[in-house]
Write a structure and sequence with these properties.
Blueprint: H1 2-22, H2 46-71
Helix pairs in contact: 1-2
């Protein structure tokens, strides 16, 4: 049981690092692929997905860490 929680934490931590590195402040995701300098006030498309994916991964890590503390 302990190993499952540790594996979940490691895998989702890697996902968080990758998702954060893909996000660029100011230019957004379009800067990664050579897009224009136009910036929007709201996140759209893949950039919005990355934000929600990052939040989801952090929540999974927190729940796994708390479960590791409580159940093991």
């Amino acid at each position: 049981m302990k190993n499952i929680f540790e594996i979940i934490i490691v895998v989702f931590s890697i996902f968080v690092v990758i998702a954060i590195l893909l996000q660029q402040k100011g230019s957004g995701l379009s800067g990664v692929f050579g897009g224009s300098d136009v910036s929007y006030l709201s996140k759209r498309g893949a950039e919005k997905f990355l934000v929600y994916f990052t939040i989801f991964c952090v929540i999974v890590i927190c729940i796994s860490a708390l479960s590791l503390i409580i159940f093991v």
